[in-house]
From TrEMBL:
This is DDB1- and CUL4-associated factor 7. Pathway: Protein modification; protein ubiquitination. It holds the Pfam family WD40. Keywords: Cytoplasm, Developmental protein, Nucleus, Repeat, Ubl conjugation pathway, WD repeat. Belongs to the WD repeat DCAF7 family. SUPFAM superfamilies: WD40 repeat-like. WD repeats lie at residues 251-293. It comes from the Eukaryota. The keyword Repeat applies. One of its GO terms (cellular component) is nucleus.
């Protein structure tokens, strides 16, 4: 991105509300585009789509739309070639798929896994399968995970109809499920399912104090590794699925609870963690299983960092959000 010689290292956007959910677009023609979700403790919430203007090198809001309840997660379709419609998914009370155009964002479909009722158990998280963008998985406080099939139907006139159906419901946890992640190779207590043999699942890790695990995150380059963290925990645990139940590393320099984990998209040994101590830390874990003492980079934000996302198609940029601010950092 030619910034006309003034290559800034940090760009900042201030939203009109507290930002929680946030993610990078992966389309090649929309490089510095992100979606942000508000965190307002009431029914009426918002999602904003923002982009970096090359000329002014400022973020501008391209679109704002209403969203019921705060979004627990936002993801753009993992379509690096730009062959699918420009879709965005959000989780909250339901999983919603939105179509983005230059002028508006339109709800394409609302996916509810409880066919017996209009009421739903809130969704804690979801993941969009990178290998097959027609698959999404949701996790819920009702103890289940659901694998959804998405049809981006034939072009009728100029409209692609998008619809979805339940492919599988997984019930292997006995408490709320807080996160779900597809491995490039498999689904992520951490309990791992093979999508080909769903009746079998393996417990890879349980927190020693039996605290719920809030996030899990697969290494983007080496499918044997994943990172997880416990609710209110100050450390991030790195697991090797070949060695269940024993962490291969613990990253514990944070001084307050960790809120976000992001593996580098281009390297198997770098990971970023972000926490309530205002810090985003980048770690080099290649010396595992020797102890990882200190991060290789540290950034201090002006508030508690709620979320961190490493841009999959632009590996030198990391996005963080704190208070009502989004910042992207060149690493």
């Amino acid at each position: 991105m030619s910034m006309h010689g003034k290559r800034k290292e940090i760009y900042k956007y201030e939203a009109p509300w507290t930002v929680y959910a946030m993610n990078w677009s992966v389309r090649p023609d929309k490089r510095f585009r992100l979606a942000l979700g508000s965190f307002v403790e009431e029914y009426n919430n918002k999602v904003q789509l923002v982009g970096l203007e090359e000329e002014s090198s400022e973020f501008v809001c391209r679109n704002t739309f209403d969203h019921p309840y705060p979004t627990t997660k936002i993801m753009w379709i993992p379509d690096t070639k730009g062959v699918y419609p420009d879709l965005l998914a959000t989780s909250g009370d339901y999983l919603r798929i939105w179509r983005v155009s230059d002028t508006e964002t339109r709800l394409e479909c609302l996916l509810n896994n409880n066919k017996n009722s209009d009421f739903c158990a809130p969704l804690t998280s979801f993941d969009w399968n990178e290998v097959d963008p027609n698959l999404l998985g949701t996790s819920s406080i009702d103890t289940t995970c659901t694998i959804w099939g998405l049809e981006t139907g034939q072009v009728l006139g100029r409209v692609n109809l998008v619809s979805g159906h339940v492919k599988t419901q997984l019930i292997a946890h006995d408490k709320e499920v807080y996160d779900i992640a597809f491995s490039r190779a498999a689904d992520g207590s951490v309990r791992m399912f093979d999508l080909r043999h769903l009746e079998h699942s393996t417990i890879i890790y349980e927190d020693p104090q039996h605290h719920p695990l809030l996030r899990l995150c697969w290494n983007k380059q080496d499918p044997n590794y994943l990172a997880t963290m416990a609710m209110d925990g100050m450390e991030v645990v790195i697991l090797d699925v070949r060695v269940p139940c024993t962490p291969v590393a613990r990253l514990n320099n944070h001084r307050a609870c960790v809120n976000g984990i992001a593996w580098a998209p281009h390297s198997s040994c770098h990971i970023c963690t972000a926490a309530d101590d205002h810090q985003a830390l980048i770690w080099d874990i290649q010396q595992m299983p020797r102890a990882i003492e200190d991060p290789i980079l540290a950034y201090t934000a002006e508030g508690e960092i709620n979320n961190v996302q490493w841009a999959s198609t632009q590996p030198d940029w990391i996005a963080i959000c704190y208070n009502n601010c989004l910042e992207i950092l060149r690493v």
